[in-house]
Amino acid sequence: MSTAKNIPAQAGTALYLVSLGCSKNLVDTEVIAGTLLTSGRTLAFEPDEADLYVINTCAFIPAARDEAREAIEDGIAWKREKPGRLLVVAGCLTEWDKDGSVRKEYPEVDLWTGVNQVADIARLLDRQSALPQNAEEPVYLYDDCTPRLQLTLPHLAYLKIADGCNNRCTYCSIPGIRGRLRTRPMESVVREARNLIEGGVRELLVIAQDITVYGNDRPESGDTLARLLTALNALEGNFVIRLLYTHPAHYTEEFIDFMARGNTKVLPYLDIPLQHISDRILKQMNRHVTRKQTEELLTKLRERIPGLTLRTTFITGFPGETEEEYQELKSFAKKFKFERCGVFPYSPEPRTPAAAFPDQVPAELAEQRSTELMKQQISIMKKLSKNQVGKTVRVLVDDVDENGAVARGAMDAPEIDNVIYIPKPKRLKPGKFCLVKITGTDGCDLIAELVK
Q1: Beta bridge partners of 111
Q2: Is residue 28 within 8 Å of 144, Cβ to Cβ?
């Protein structure tokens, strides 16, 4: 899906990028950057130095769309300052905007592109590729040969193994924005991982909307998440692997057996967005799992995987959620004491089934429940953090300045979790592994001293 104005040949020589949304979207931004740079353009670090302004948008929830609109308005203001500047809006907002109403609001935008044009912006700008006439279902998926400019810390990289989703949760707009599940061949993922490791990456973050269904769209290949992790684990180098975004209904014994080995480069960290625990709510959400199955899975994972960190997310105020069902969720979260957790109030998404459900919970009540549940979770995480005092852990250093170093252990993913502060970093450098002893806490964060 894309629309464009009359754009001069060889348009835009210096690129300024704005990336919004999740880590999966960031990978798309990195591909956009890589393909534009290989077309002969340069990267500008300040808007005033650029003549091409590209915004890769998120549209997952209303707040994300509001942020995208603000970014577009900033881009329009930038464009008006100097003739000849070009503004491109890419990504999820274009796919979400099925009727084109958002595009009509911003006629100043020179080119709108969607998921299928992630790697085609340079060709579109240079008029080497024709614009699609009609909206198409997203089918694009990059591979290890696609140019990509890593925009994370040099020692971190996201490894996107799939795009799209077939789960069809009733509250979620992702299938309508990103399309159906499509997973990358294992050989392509492994080649990209090897290239990243050889380039200095020390933490590979394996991501997708749901990594546990890896290979399900290609049953003839025999690819599974456990097979992929076995191949990644066999790569040479001093690095770790972190897994993000699994689905409780799609865990297999093969995957659990791999995680239970405990002697791999894969960290004992699992992100399992549970969303709720009431059987009635789970059914309304179309989560394909029950409370009993969820509790059995969590118990098995904690029993079998040494030192496991469980991260989850919950939604409060889903249509029809009663006070009793909310208290059931709150009691469940207190019982299982998740090491990491986020809580979000439900907000209706246009064109999703849940938006039309009866008994919509008032936004104020959904927010109140979210705040209350998160307060409980913070209290749990603070107690769990205090339990870490006295332990020696291996960490990866993310940043060092005159005030100290910021690092993370196995329990914490970048950007979304907690950190470990090392006040006297001595000769530490970003991207290095080291051993530290936990000496104290700062809220949910930890304080440590260097062991070696």
Answers
A1: 4, 88
A2: no
Least Cα distance to 300 among 262, 253, 244 occurs for 253
Residue 16's H or E segment, with its range, is strand 14-19
Instruction: Tokens for 13, please give them.
Output: 């020589």
Provide the pLDDT confidence category of residue 134 given band limits of 50, 70 and 90. low
For range 415-424, the mean pLDDT: 94
- The Cα–Cα gap between 12 and 84 comes to 8
User: Which DSSP symbol is given to 354?
Assistant: G
> Nearest CA to 277 among 291, 264, 296?
291
pTM of the complete model: 0.94
Strand partners, 228: none
Distance between CA 412 and CA 340 in Å, rounded? 8
Whether 7 contacts 127, CB under 8 Å: yes
The residue among 322, 326, 349, 347 whose CA lies nearest residue 96 is: 349
- Please calculate the CA angle 273-295-272 and round it to the nearest 5 degrees: 15
**CA 53/CA 51 separation, integer angstroms:** 7
Q: 3-state SS string over 176-211?
A: HHHCCCEECCHHHHHHHHHHHHHCCCCEEEEECCCH
Buried residues in 381-390 as b, exposed as e (16+ CB within 10 A): beebbeebee
**DSSP strands (E only) in 338-414:** 340-345, 392-401, 404-408
Q: What is the pLDDT of residue 362?
A: 97
pLDDT of residue 51 exceeding 80? yes
Q: Tell me what pLDDT residue 425 has.
A: 81
Coil vs helix vs strand at 285: helix
Two structure tokens written together for 327: 């208290």
The closest alpha carbon to 1, from 101, 92, 106, belongs to 92
The C-alpha angle 180, 183, 184, rounded to 5 degrees, equals 145
Calculate ∠ Cα 108-55-9, nearest 5°.
60
Rounded distance between C-alpha atoms, residue 183 and residue 214, angstroms: 6
Q: Give the span between the Cα atoms of 264 and 206, in whole angstroms.
A: 15
In this structure, the strands spanning 392-401 and 404-408 are antiparallel
- Per-residue HEC secondary structure of 96-120 comes to HCCCCHHHHHCCCCCEEECHHHCCC
- Per-residue pLDDT at 117 exceeds 80: yes
